[in-house]
Specification:
The chain is α+β, with helices and mostly antiparallel strands. It contains 3 helices and 5 strands. Helix content is about 40%, strand content about 25%. The chain has a 5-stranded mixed beta sheet with strand order 3-2-1-5-4. It starts with a helix and ends with a strand.
Length: about 150
């Protein structure tokens, strides 16, 4: 995992624990004050939200417990690996695309980060500039040529 991704997860976890969880607890207390809990929709909705939030908190805690931040100096090399930024050309239509190979928890297509477990990333691993790869994706077969590799 990148240091940036690790820091982002830590910030999300802190926000959930220090802002969202107290808000949910306040909502539960407010709903409880309204009387009969057996027919109190607000109370049950707040309890469901609390359960969902606690589940997300536990999930993020487990990710952080098992996460390893990869130092930038270990990423040197001319082959594609985790945290490599890869520019490639789709040989079928000559469209250029650039993706960063990221951990599954950092993957975000809007930011141009694809999971290392995705079919495209798996096909690109350990390849070099100029290599052509064929990738089976849900839409069919992609032929890609690697144009450049940058290590983050």
């Amino acid at each position: 995992m990148s240091q940036e991704g690790y820091d982002k997860l830590v910030a999300e976890l802190r926000h959930m624990e220090s802002v969202e969880l107290p808000q949910v607890r306040d909502a539960i207390a407010e709903a409880r004050d309204k009387g009969d809990l057996s027919e109190n929709f607000e109370y049950h909705a707040a309890k469901r939200e609390q359960s969902r939030l606690l589940g997300r908190i536990r999930f993020k805690q487990r990710i952080l417990e098992n996460a390893r931040v990869i130092p930038a100096e270990r990423l040197k090399g001319d082959t594609i690996g985790l945290l490599s930024k890869v520019e490639m050309t789709n040989l079928a239509n000559n469209a250029r695309m650039t993706y960063t190979i990221a951990s599954p928890h950092e993957a975000n297509l809007r930011e141009g980060k694809i999971s290392i477990k995705s079919p495209i990333a798996e096909a690109l691993l350990n390849k070099k500039v100029g290599d052509e790869v064929e990738v089976r994706v849900p839409a069919g077969l992609l032929k890609l040529r690697i144009e450049s590799i940058q290590q983050s």
